[in-house]
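Hi support team,

I've been running sequence recovery on a batch of backbones for a student project. Most finish fine, but this one hangs at about 90% for roughly twenty minutes before it completes. I'm not sure whether the input is malformed or the queue is just slow. I've pasted the structure tokens below so you can try to reproduce it. Let me know if you need the job ID as well.

Thanks,
M.K.
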């Protein structure tokens, strides 16, 4: 019988918030759910998060592992940077920046904010795929972490390197 991946994700998000405010940082992790396992497998992602190449390798390895073990769920928790939109900038403007090689990663933007990001994917027993994203901005006040607004979305969270682990080819965006 499957575990409720969505409920697990909400519990882990609360634990991540507590860890961040207590420790001042998060260890990036992934939890993978497979039939027959009593509890999810835990992966420490920290050794793979310092370069784009390592992140690409990690994404590929997680995708292949999900496929090999026939995973029905995955939850990832990381710290991330979000670029704050410049007023008047459209999605087409951003797409053009990427195409022309002018894209600047959010971690390098002067107007950026830190956030906790949790993504989850759950292939339910009836075959439907449920996906979600939870995030919460935070900032540092000296040694203290101050949490800001929290946001939760159900549905696809995009096609970035760390999404779509459980999607079938006919479900790709």
């Amino acid at each position: 019988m499957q575990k409720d991946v969505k409920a697990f994700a909400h519990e882990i998000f609360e634990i991540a918030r507590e860890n961040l405010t207590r420790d001042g940082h998060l260890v990036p992790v992934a939890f993978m759910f497979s039939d027959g396992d009593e509890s999810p497998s835990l992966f420490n992602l920290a050794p793979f998060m310092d370069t784009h190449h390592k992140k690409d390798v990690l994404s590929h390895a997680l995708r292949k592992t999900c496929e090999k073990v026939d995973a029905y769920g995955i939850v990832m928790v990381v710290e991330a940077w979000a670029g704050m939109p410049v007023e008047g900038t459209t999605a087409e403007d951003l797409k053009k920046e990427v195409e022309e090689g002018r894209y600047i990663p959010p971690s390098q933007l002067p107007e950026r904010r830190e956030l906790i990001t949790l993504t989850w994917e759950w292939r339910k027993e009836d075959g439907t795929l449920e996906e979600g994203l939870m995030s919460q901005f935070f900032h540092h006040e000296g040694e203290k972490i101050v949490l800001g607004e929290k946001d939760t979305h159900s549905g696809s969270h995009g096609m970035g390197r760390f999404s779509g682990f459980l999607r079938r080819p006919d479900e790709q965006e």
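--
Follow-up from support: It reproduced on our side and the slowdown came from queue contention, not your input. Residues 5-23 form the longest helix (19 residues). No action needed from you.
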